[in-house]
Amino acid sequence: xxxxxxxxxxxxxxxxxxxxxxxxxxxxxxxxxxxxxxxxxxxxxxxxxxxxxxxxxxxxxxxxxxxxxxxxxxxxxxxxxxxxxxxxxxxxxxxxxxxx
Amino acid sequence: xxxxxxxxxxxxxxxxxxxxxxxxxxxxxxxxxxxxxxxxxxxxxxxxxxxxxxxxxxxxxxxxxxxxxxxxxxxxxxxxxxxxxxxxxxxxxxxxxxxxxxxxxxxxxxxxxxxxxxxxxxxxxxxxxxxxxxxxxxxxxxxxxxxxxxxxxxxxxxxxxxxxxxxxxxxxxxxxxxxxxxxxxxxxxxxxxxxxxxxxxxxxxxxxxxxxxxxxxxxxxxxxxxxxxxxxxxxxxxxxxxxxxxxxxxxxxxxxxxxxxxxxxxxxxxxxxxxxxxxxxxxxxxxxxxxxxxxxxxxxxxxxxxxxxxxxxxxxxxxxxxxxxxxxxxxxxxxxxxxxxxxxxxxxxxxxxxxxxxxxxxxxxxxxxxxxxxxxxxxxxxxxxxxxxxxxxxxxxxxxxxxxxxxxxxxxxxxxxxxxxxxxxxxxxxxxxxxxxxxxxxxxxxxxxxxxxxxxxxxxxxxx
Lengths: 100, 464
Prior knowledge:
The complex is a heterodimer.
Chain A: H1 3-22, H2 30-40, H3 44-52, H4 57-99
Chain B: H1 4-24, H2 30-51, H3 58-78, H4 84-112, H5 116-119, H6 122-149, H7 163-183, H8 187-205, H9 213-234, H10 238-261, H11 266-271, H12 295-303, E1 307-312, H13 314-318, H14 322-334, E2 338-343, H15 353-360, E3 368-370, H16 371-374, E4 383-387, H17 396-399, E5 418-423, E6 443-447, H18 450-463
Helix pairs in contact in B: 1-2, 1-10, 4-6, 4-8, 4-9, 6-7, 6-8, 6-9, 7-8, 9-10, 12-18, 14-18
Transmembrane segments (chain B): 6-25, 32-52, 58-76, 88-108, 120-146, 158-180, 186-206, 213-233, 239-259
Function (chain B): The transhydrogenation between NADH and NADP is coupled to respiration and ATP hydrolysis and functions as a proton pump across the membrane.
Catalytic activity (chain B): NAD(+) + NADPH + H(+)(in) = NADH + NADP(+) + H(+)(out)
């Protein structure tokens, strides 16, 4: 099996996994899910680090810009998702107390 | 090239991302899922520091990561919940931009390495072109969505004569440049391709009307995911491929779910305005007669009802009236009135946005009823209180085939015995279409700022 085919296989299988894992999401969680998925693609930061590792001159500047942008995406994305989800969970124990 | 231990670590991170997405789709597991994803992302980004033979710019890289992280945390903490959609758009845009830059740098390496070009398969160059182009589209498109939602520009569709031609031209230019890049790896087609991508991104989003922008955010999110996946192939990094593909696939699926909830097709949302027919209606206030009342009258209607359904909309959150609304519901509950919130799938500015906004005001989860769950209850409701919502109760979606929102499932507020509309003015909703329900004889309007009026309504109900 040639190498591109292996990559294509990983790609196609990941497509199915991606659809399958979120297929039962309730509309309540659409916003946090979008935001969380958004944070996950911030992992392009990893790619930015790799290409910047041995860049010089102008390429180094471009690479550092890419790192800053990717870090904003990744870190900001996870933090803002957590902020949203915090509100969904905080209320639950309080509700149980009220019921008891 | 990458040591086996690091490849295994990448695999573990990929599995963690799958678990993260899985967690995010259930209310109880969502927060844990997000934390798993965050942990995996941090571990993944630390790995190159341990296995790469040449790491010349460690200090600079760490400084850049710190700068980006501080910026991200600052934005994420400061943003108000009402502004969430544009924040997600912005984060998405910078991610797409980063991916495009990464691909350009990798292209530079391919061009610079003598003799290496021969060993590079055309697949890699196709993936490079894809990453540069789609990443730039995602970047520019997200910036426009941000500007539209942040009111930095008009949220109405921007269309000009010949837009369709320019649009087609940009797409054709993108394809030609990609072809040139694949045929002969060089730097300049890559750079021009990025610029064309930016132009294409602008043209893609400008004609989209405000109400449809959230769908576009979701779509661009999926685009960025696919960009990252292609970038992973260019860099021979399996984790980027898997993570990007997961986001691309789930994002596409989510986009379709949202479009379905709005009764629209994605193609119609993107290209509706291009076909000539504007996606918006008049957008002006009407002077037809309506029945309006003061808070005291509305308080009587609500206070002596048996069953009340609240339809909250984005206007509620903009006015920051959700806390007062919760208090009102509590007081009504104490009086023995059965109260529920009816949440339209696209209430707010993004699907599920309203749930976040009400959760912020600590409204109990059980009182939030999804559309399918509550739509049959409207005919038994004594009063429906519509606060800051409009399009989601507009019967034109059922009755007027020509209306832009025709076919969108709506909340059946028009079936209730009485409707109280809390509105700032007679201006139409986000979609810019007149709402016949406002002129119905069972409808009473309560004009004023939502927060102020809600406060008056609350004291009036307390005084009953």
